[in-house]
Specification:
A seven-stranded antiparallel β-sheet has the order 10-9-13-7-8-12-11, with no helix packed on it. Strands 2-3-1-4-5-6 form a six-stranded mixed β-sheet, sandwiched between helices. A six-stranded antiparallel barrel has the order 14-17-16-15-18-19. The longest helix has 16 residues, at about 445-460. The chain folds into five domains: about 1-160, 3-Layer(aba) Sandwich (Rossmann fold), CATH 3.40.50.300; about 170-250, Elongation Factor Tu (Ef-tu), domain 3 (Beta Barrel); about 260-355, Translation factors (Elongation Factor Tu (Ef-tu), domain 3, Beta Barrel), CATH 2.40.30.10; about 360-430, no CATH class; about 445-559, Arc Repressor Mutant, subunit A. It is globular, with a radius of gyration of 28 Å. By secondary structure, the chain is of the alpha+beta class.
Length: about 550
């Protein structure tokens, strides 16, 4: 299913064109019918050659801009409506800026009311807008409700959409409606992106798995989930909380704050933009901007924002930032949430007017996915590391790490360098005589240290994943092996399987995500493990009294 949104100035004929195409009215509120304008988002669809096309009809009036951007957010294609007599108007420009800010690139520009026009259509303004853009896919059509043919338009739209390329997105769904149906209960609707896993939906405001009765769509919800779809989700009463409009559903938990780091779509120099009242729009939600700072790094412009509420956002979500006082719009791509320490560091650099050559001067370490160009930074796994910071860490490890142990390994490296402990563990692989134990760095030089070395060897042989490798316990010193079992560093699952305490932690985190009462199938789906591992692991969790089996079918609950 392709999702299409309308765009254009108020009264240019958006709803009329949608009605012509679908034979359905999208203006349903009494106020909309009374005033003859779209206020809320309207939803409808049409079919052609067994393909279903969903349409989101958005308001054109400037007073309902937040509803407008909500309608644009997850659309694949835009019907951009222009009154052939009035031509490019105030909301034409505002909508166009918002759409380009959201990186929409597939447009059908439709000139309406052509039967009322005496002269030829003036397309100069539109063409001048298009000429400034790259990678835009478009066609220009003409429409009037007296002469235009529904079948012809449906065919043109169908062929155009077949020519479109759509950007990849992190699987997610922004809720655009939430309501209660008698006899059914709570229902939410939205546009689910490609590859959204309908069996594992996380309500990100509370980071909890949704309990779902049923999911419906105009198209069947296929197993491959390889298309964008308009869906309705019927929710069970057992949910602790229910999503509302503007909430985000994903397949992964998001740890979020009210501080955002965003890369603008293009180089931007109008720093007066930060003065006045501004808002940020994302998905079907929006928030006031309390503080905005610009950071120029070579030809790229970044901003760090403090907004009026903490909100979950998927990585690389396209956002619209509007200065209401100046009526200016810029677009950006959300990268990540900031910690207090990172935010303070950015603000200090800006306050001191320090030049920033690259992002690693601010963040010390960043995932490679945030760098679209090749870099020469030091790399550890999927992280780039600030070279001077890395040298500092090596110096501390080789000389005196007592300061680290005073604070604890995790806190020390997070507070001083904002570097995750996983990176430090990777660095320590270069040191055979240093180990992290109970959040402390230890030198290996006695019997206890040999025990730690044996543990490290076992863990390496098992592997990081839960589909652990089988190991020959006879190849290890029995004395140390017994001790590792006694201090709960390793666990025997069955005669063929051994796991470490780290694997057990992963198992516990999985069952905590499951429903209050869960089945073996629930566990298998969440863990992606075969029956070979699932059943023995669940029996181990029962034995350790982490879970309790409550019936013969294998239903369990957390103890």
């Amino acid at each position: 299913m392709t999702v299409i949104a309308t765009a254009g100035h108020v009264d240019h004929g958006k709803s009329t064109f949608v009605n012509f195409l679908t034979k359905q009215e999208t203006d349903r509120l009494p106020e909309e019918k009374k005033r003859g304008l779209t206020i809320n988002l309207g939803y409808t669809y049409f079919t052609y050659e067994n393909k279903t096309y969903s349409i989101v009809d958005v308001p054109g009036h400037k007073d309902y801009f937040k509803n407008t951007v909500s309608g644009f957010s997850n659309a694949d294609v835009i019907f951009f409506i222009i009154d052939s007599r009035e031509n490019w108007s105030e909301q034409s420009e505002e909508h166009f800026q918002a759409l380009i800010a959201l990186k929409k690139r597939n447009f059908l520009f439709i000139y309406t009311k052509t039967d009322l026009l005496k002269d030829e259509i003036d397309k100069k303004i539109l063409l001048s807008k298009i000429e400034t853009l790259q990678d835009i896919n478009y066609e220009i059509l003409e429409f009037n409700k007296i002469e235009s043919n529904n079948e012809d338009f449906s065919k043109v739209i169908h062929k155009f959409i077949e020519s479109c390329n759509f950007d990849k997105k992190i699987p997610s769904m922004w809720v655009d409606r939430a309501f209660t149906i008698d006899g059914t209960g709570k229902v939410v609707t939205g546009t689910a992106s490609k590859y959204f896993d309908y069996k594992n939906i996380i309500f990100n405001l509370h980071n909890e798995k949704l309990q779902i009765k049923e999911i419906q769509s105009r198209d069947a919800v296929n197993q491959e989930n390889n298309e964008t779809k308009r869906i309705a989700i019927s929710l069970k009463k057992t949910n602790d909380s229910f999503p509302k409009r503007g909430d985000l559903l994903t397949n992964k938990e998001i740890i979020f704050t009210d501080m955002l780091f965003i890369k603008l779509n293009s180089e931007y120099n109008d720093y007066l933009f930060s003065k006045g009242t501004s808002r940020i729009f994302f998905g079907t939600d929006n928030a006031n901007i309390k503080k905005i700072n610009f950071i120029k790094i070579k030809k790229n412009t970044y901003i760090n924002l403090t907004i009026s509420k903490a909100v979950p956002l998927p990585e690389f979500e396209n956002v619209v930032i509007q200065n209401i006082d100046k009526n200016q719009i810029v677009g950006g791509e959300f990268l990540f949430f900031l910690s207090d320490i990172q935010n303070q560091k950015i603000n200090k650099k800006i306050k001191n007017s320090e030049e920033v050559e690259n992002l690693l001067e601010i963040f010390n370490s960043l995932n490679v996915k945030y760098f679209k160009e090749n870099t020469k930074f030091s790399r550890i796994n999927d992280e780039y590391i600030n070279e001077s910071t890395l040298n500092e860490i090596y110096e501390i490890l080789e000389n005196d790490f007592s300061e680290i142990n005073k604070a604890g390994v995790e806190r020390y490296f997070n507070d001083k360098y904002q570097i995750k402990v996983e990176i430090i563990k990777e660095i320590l692989k270069n040191y055979e005589d240093i180990e992290i134990s109970n959040n402390q760095l230890l030198k290996i030089n006695n019997d206890q240290d040999i025990l730690i070395l044996e543990y490290k060897k076992i863990y390496k042989l098992l592997g990081d994943g839960l589909d652990v490798n089988s190991i020959d316990v006879k190849s290890f010193d029995g004395k140390y092996l017994k001790e590792l079992f006694l201090i709960n560093k390793i666990y025997r699952v069955n005669s063929k399987l051994i796991i470490s305490d780290k694997h057990l932690e992963k198992l516990i985190s999985i069952v905590k995500k499951l429903p209050k009462n869960f089945s073996v199938t629930d566990f298998k789906e969440e863990s992606n493990l075969s029956r070979k591992y699932s059943i023995p692991y669940l029996e181990l969790l029962d034995k350790l009294k982490i879970t309790t089996k409550i019936d013969k079918s294998g239903i369990r609950k957390l103890s």
